Amino acid sequence: ISRTERAPSAFPWGVAAMPESEPAVPGVEEEEVLDAETHGAPTDAEPSEGGGAEVSMALESEGAGEEEEEEHDHEKEEEDEAPGWGAADTYDPIAPGSEIIVDSFTELRIDPVMVAEAQAGWRYFISSASREAVGEAIYAAIFEGSPSLQPLFTTPRALQAMRFMNGLNSFLNALDDPPALKVLVETLGFGHLHLDVTVPRVVMFRDSIIDLLQVELAEKFTSQGLAGWMALLNYVGGAIIFIKAHYADRLRILSESWSSIVTKKSDNNRGSENVSMDKVAALVKKSGEKKKSAWGRMGKSGGESDKANGSLDGHMGAMAERGETGGNRAQMGHDVPTTFNEMFVFNAAVMGYGQNVWMTEVLACFDAMVTNVANSGRLQEECDFLVLRIARVATGKVDLAEYKSCMLASMRSLLPKSWSTAHEVAWSWMWENVERLLLSTMGKPTAWERALGTFFQNLDETQAYQVRKDIYSGFFTKAAAGQDYFKQSNTYLHLIATKILGMTMELYRDPIKMADDISALGLRHVGYAIPTELFGPFVSACIEVVQTVTKDNSAIEAFQWSLGLISKSLTRTILEGSTIVMQAINVNSEHQLHRAIICAPRGERAAWMLTVQVGTQSISPLEWSIENGALEAAAAIITDLLTVRADRDRYYYGADELFSRHPDIVRKLSHHAPALLPQLFDGLIWRARTTSGGMRRVNYYVKHLLVGPDGDFSETLEWVAMSQDPKIVCHPILAFITDLVWVRVACRSFLFRKAYVSVMSLIFLTSQSILEHMDEHKSSTQLLIIALCRAIIYIFSMGSLWYGHVRNTIRAYKTKDTVQILNIKVPEYLTNWQEAMSLVLAIFLALLLAFEPILHCWGEEVGENGKELGLFSEDCPKYKHRRGFPYAVISMLCLFLYFIQLVDLAVVTTRVSAFVLVCGRMLSEVCLFASALIVTIMMFSSAIGCLQHTLVDFQGIHKCSLELFRMFLSTENSASYEALAGTPLVLLLVFIFLLTALVFLINMLIAQISLSYQAVYCDMVGYARLKRIHIIVETIQTVPHSRWSSLMNSLGFEKRLEFNEGDVGLAGGIQILEPAGLNPTMVDSIHRFGGSTSPTIQWPAELNKSGVDHMDRLERLVQKTMRKMKRNGMTGMTGTGTLASGTHGTTKISTDAGGNSNDSMNSQGND
């Protein structure tokens, strides 16, 4: 084992020299990496712009003191306790790399044989069981093997187990890549600054893992593998101690000061996040005009000190500490910037940097860089994206020192009381390291973009197809396991490769949009459970293929850098988004999901199941499980969210969080998982276990089902109606809100709208049926009334119908809201049969107007009998003989259509509406019967027509059909049957017809109607409610907003409802009383817990009352034991090992000879 003998870098984020053979991460070239000789030893005493010699002296003494204290502590620890190596008989503690080095932090380079053996043993170890089981075994080994470390285990067990698993897996995969390993270890070290990590504790941690591997791997854990593991764990432990000793104070200062600035920003001005240069420049100009003389005096007296402090506002910050600017600041009032963004732009404008647009880009990324200063990989990624953003806007030279001056000046102004030399050093140190990362690639993206664009333009279709093909060939060669995740067709894989190649170019053109797109893509891969280990081989395959296609080094370099950045971003997004909740959803396990969320703090439990946030993008575990068919996990999430839990201080109920995150959750469930809708609605109802006076309290939490995010009527009922499920609409909560909205709001508007149709129908009935036949000789008064009624029909009824249909048709064609019927595009609203009937009525009324007798007889003076005609007479001979019949037929049809328009009035009563709907559904059976009867009559009529007979009533098919139909209706007299006696053959056919029609077809109709009614009867109330919901959705759009607001105010959703007398519970619902025997409730649905009421702690473990889970585990253990006994009896014991042993919680993983896993967990003692 050999380690690189180099001095520690002044930059602690893994920028030591890369291997000379190839870069660690694709896309990172050797020129970007700073060699150790260039860095030299860390120089804490390096003066900053505002520090001076005093700062240097202070830092030198501080650094010397820290080194002496560290050496003293190290010597004391070695004297107190010598490291115990665990496997002393197989490992030489004096071998190189066995010591834990805490006074330096360089790259770890060990023998490739050791690397290969360590990685092989780890692969065998994690392949022996599921990753969750391996993580649990590692946790148990450390927790039980090192009792003194147990107080450090504050994270929930399931979370910490997966962290151990993922962390060790990352270290082992990067063991052959020293720079990448150094970055990972540094990130881990920065995450452990709050822990007291010492050499003895590192030894205990290391020995626990080594013992576990020795027991589990047995002979597969070779001496070379052991040496590699020892070197790795020693390296990690020493690095954590080194980082804590050298950088903890600086990171603490950065974190505390930035938190103070962010808090001040949120308190003073929440809307100042995006501050423009022009706005603050105008503010500077305004202030300058007010206090020109004051600015001049301060500028003259400042002199060289202004240069040192960076800006004029730096003087103001210093003077504020001495109380010298109180009057001036009071005079400026609210014009003084109060946030970092405002203060920075203010200082930039004052210092003459207002035209540097690139500073705005740095300002936009500054928060992400500061908050991730301890995460070396994330900081490098943020700097890479920042370089791309600067390249898009910069037009001249970019001097990063200008930003540092404005930054420090702004910090001093915002933190005048707490600012010190330590702050100056910490922020200068932070920016210098950021600047070093930026300068490594500054200026290159523009040339890279041109070279890569030229490469893609010169790539023809044949070459592009071969490139895509070779990418997958190379990838499957490098990582055969990747074939298991590419299950799509080759054409789709080529589409994926095309998008990936396009992303490398788009990254240079629009880095802001690509950052969001990459985050969204990574979150989707979280749901796909894609191992991040596959990204490296895929990137390598892409780069190798491009290298074979072009010899342009700039294009290759550009492609390598951009694809490497995309790969790093995707990997980070997947790792950050791979929560234990998402892992449980990927396996669609209710049990694992319960184990995952039980670790959540009670105040964040709902957020764990609803949001996974990475950068600016987020994904909902609930939504992902619904859309990808993990319904068992989705059902468990919905149940847990809508379970009421309570401690002494507050109630926890996830309905508000659920509907805030997913206002359209009902629509999603209706489309993807309608079976979960009852579970959702059940969770919105609370019923008391106790009763009073034969009545039970019931709380319906219907606020989010009634009110949308904008305060208007929610679309819930519309989504439910679209599902056309007659059972779900009968759910108590839907029936409750449907009746509530109908009675309080919709019924009045609906009846008012139907009253217009009713009046029009009554007027039409009066003019066409009543007055028309009251008297044979109509008086002039009657004629006038008829003419007025018809005028009203033509103007108001027909006019309104045509206006509405023309408007809706134009709107439908403009919005392309059409459907294809017989290759004709028809407005979709006409698919509603009532709208179609309305259009037919409008057409018939237009025809009726065309045939109107009053118009045709206008001007005629003499009637048919020579009588003089009145003014509105309709008895002229010309019309009566030519157009009287069509007019009468059209009038009849219009009257039918008017009555059909009034069928909706049945919805006022659910019982009547159900009856009407059942009658409509029975019409299909009647139509089938009528069709069969017609065919039967035609068949027998044709047969009788073929016979020779003298029966006049049976001469011809038409006469025979009519006669048979009369016989079927039993309207024939006995003489007709007596006439058939002379023709026995005809009589025989008539008897057969009557037997077929009256006995068979009639009874068949009765049977069909009976069975159909039984099938429809159970759902007829549901169909009636569906009809009512459709009408509510249509009517609610015409309801005045004032009436809707009055209803919402009267419901009082902001008032908290009582669960029991004196027990004030949750708001957002309506409380009613129902009969005690209607829905018996034996168990209190509220889970109450004692103990601490802090929202940051977990809920106590809830007992499994059904015991099903325990029985399932017992059954799996019995099956496993039987398989093992059978295998041992036939072939003997092979390949078993214990992952961890202890007095409590022994965990076992068994593997068969082929390496297949039986990953069951046997917990002894705890269970």
Compact description:
With 1167 residues, the protein is mainly α. The protein starts with a strand and ends in a 9-residue tail after the last strand.
What does this structure look like?
The chain is elongated and about 125 Å long. The protein contains 47 helices and 17 strands. The strands form seven sheets. A three-stranded mixed beta sheet has the order 6-5-14, with no helix packed on it. A three-stranded antiparallel beta sheet has the order 7-8-13, with no helix packed on it. Strands 15-16-17 form a three-stranded antiparallel beta sheet. The protein starts with a strand and ends in a 9-residue tail after the last strand. Strand 11 and strand 12 (1063-1067) form a beta hairpin. It is 62% helix and 5% strand. The longest helix has 46 residues, at 223-268. It has 1167 residues and is mostly helical.
Give the tags:
mainly alpha; disordered N terminus; 17 strands; three-stranded antiparallel β-sheet; three-stranded mixed β-sheet; 47 helices; 1167 residues
Q: What distance lies between the first and last C-alpha atoms, to the nearest angstrom?
A: 45 Å
Our Rg estimate from Cα atoms comes to 42 Å
Which secondary-structure class do the elements indicate?
A: mainly alpha
Number of helices: 47
Helix content: 55-70%
Outline the low-pLDDT stretches: 1-98, 269-334, 1103-1108, 1130-1167
Q: So what's the overall shape?
A: elongated
- Main sheet: strand order: 6-5-14
